[in-house]
Amino acid sequence: MTPKPGHLMAAEIAEQPKVWRRLLTEGADPIAAAAARIREYAPRFVLFVARGTSDHAALYAKYLVEIVHGLPAGLMSPSTMTVYGSTPDLRDTLVIAVSQSGGSPDLVRTVEVARQQGALTVAVTNNPASALADAAQIHVDVLAGEERAVAATKSYTAELLALHMLLNGDTDFEISALPELGDEMLRHSDAVDFIAARYRFAQRLITTGRGYAYPTAREAALKLMETSYLSAQAFSGADLLHGPLATIDPQVPVIAVVPEGPGGQAMAPVLARLAELRADVVTVGAKAAGLAGAIALPSGVPDELSPLLEILPLQQLALQLAVTRGGDPDEPRGLRKVTQTL
Amino acid sequence: MTPKPGHLMAAEIAEQPKVWRRLLTEGADPIAAAAARIREYAPRFVLFVARGTSDHAALYAKYLVEIVHGLPAGLMSPSTMTVYGSTPDLRDTLVIAVSQSGGSPDLVRTVEVARQQGALTVAVTNNPASALADAAQIHVDVLAGEERAVAATKSYTAELLALHMLLNGDTDFEISALPELGDEMLRHSDAVDFIAARYRFAQRLITTGRGYAYPTAREAALKLMETSYLSAQAFSGADLLHGPLATIDPQVPVIAVVPEGPGGQAMAPVLARLAELRADVVTVGAKAAGLAGAIALPSGVPDELSPLLEILPLQQLALQLAVTRGGDPDEPRGLRKVTQTL
């Protein structure tokens, strides 16, 4: 019997709350120990290095560092070291590499150079036996289990949660409630079914969000590109108003991620402008604000944890849309699971 | 008589080499003085803040800082301060805001907070009378003259050159030769005419580059979106192989920026993969490597100065394509020259 198209991706999407439970229990002590080593090092700057889906987890963590720790942070361009051979002064700098496979040669090289240059290096991966885990002083295992679908799903939310545990251990929110909220969202996917049907013939799509929700917009766009071959573009709500707005007309669907907190509230002027343009807007948020549809988020989840939940229906959407369009998201054309770039 | 569509943008594209000459003469002393103040402050970390086109100039400057100065650098997300109210520790940090108008309230607020938090702040703008110029300790005027077209062109290359003068004063290249090289490129636009005709009916487009050429890819995509309403997406050559490659088929034109130096050389595996996919590739580079067309760059220009030249034919392409498609790039639908975001 031929397996159903997308069965791997479907199983891995469904598995996510279970992965979070594992990380919150088995992962708690090792991640707390890693966090203690970071505190001891007392970094003044934090740099992230990652590619693809993991780059969106890194972007999320950059917001955590800037907002929760009040430290300047940046995303490294590996090419500065691997192509141009720069050897930056990285004393007092924490360098966090994020990678599902831990196998990308350019990330390994970047961590090696960073370590030589005085940084404290942390690898956040789904593979403790990887070259990246070896290269860094500290390894954080995201414990997602083997990921077989080419489109990363469970490793993404596992990276988000592991980075949150590493960088924001003192949250007020009862974090153990998250897996149950995730299970509930995954069960109620009627809105996703409807939206997937509506997007059947869309050629391009815009995603948008601000603050912690911006990485969600980026990751949703990548998932849609990888699986459904849509031309999906993500913009921060603020950047959208600077130029890309011109590409939006009622033929271009917009997905806006608007959690309850400040990041979602800051989207109000963007939603107003999109409404003026009569754009087809679907919201992912606590309030049903989308003109064309809405995917509900549970109430009471702070902005910095909301990304774990926001992405779930958007992963489901990418999967369903790919299958509806006759594709197989488990084997997207032209892609390999581990990408070798130097 | 009704003015020709795009006449403002055409005039400002043509004016660029003249703007560079002005900046290299009138701008030399004030920028050298600003560079001296930065050296005296001796920053350990450099952050940039910008939006839209200026964000691409900032990204270019981030590469300069990382490669030439060997300092860690990052791009700030204004929302961390304006939406989430963070007050990061910015001692020993140089914060450079880049903005044509100097009028974006979120950039002004970010610079104010950065200054309070101990940073040395620099505003790089085209308007010495702007709120941003006032807010920063140091102002660098890019001397581009009033920019009237909504799609920024001359202010972009003026920002690139001003940032280069500020951050890489000791270049070996005879920088005064650049304006003449620019004039020559602008005169020889046959390849651009041909490519604009070929893209007449394209719905979406991919741009790509690595290292210093990546900001060019980003800016070219934005110009095409703003003026021609194409769905244009930019990816670093390395990121392109992680996912977005799935969206590429022979119907999606690709523009690859491949200067002579290391950044262009590092694109070889990307071009090879695109050739396997039978993608329609146009190159902007010193060698004619594109399967579907090539725009020549002069030989002998180092990677860190090449972006000033690389963008010229791509600005011309955005203008021509917009006009060919019946639009007016001087008044793109839905856009305003100064975007107010908080």
Quick rundown:
With 342 residues, chain A is an alpha/beta fold. Chain A contains 15 helices and 10 strands. The model of chain A has no long low-confidence stretch (mean pLDDT 92).
Describe this protein's structure.
2 copies of one chain form a homodimer. The first copy, chain A, has 342 residues and is α/β, with parallel strands linked by helices. Chain A has 2 domains: 8-170, Rossmann fold, CATH 3.40.50.10490; 178-324, Glucose-6-phosphate isomerase like protein, domain 1 (Rossmann fold), CATH 3.40.50.10490. In chain A, 46% of the residues lie in helices and 16% in strands. Chain A has helices at 7-14, 16-25, 28-41, 53-69, 78-82, 105-116, 131-135, 154-167, 178-187, 190-198, 213-228, 237-240, 262-265, 268-276, 306-324, and strands at 45-50, 73-75, 93-99, 120-125, 138-141, 204-209, 231-236, 253-258, 280-285, 293-296. In chain A, strands 2-1-3-4-5 form a 5-stranded parallel sheet, sandwiched between helices. A 5-stranded parallel sheet of chain A has the order 7-6-8-9-10, sandwiched between helices. In chain A, strand 6, helix 11 and strand 7 (231-236) form a beta-alpha-beta unit. Chain A is globular and about 55 Å long. The termini of chain A are far apart. The mean pLDDT of chain A is 92.
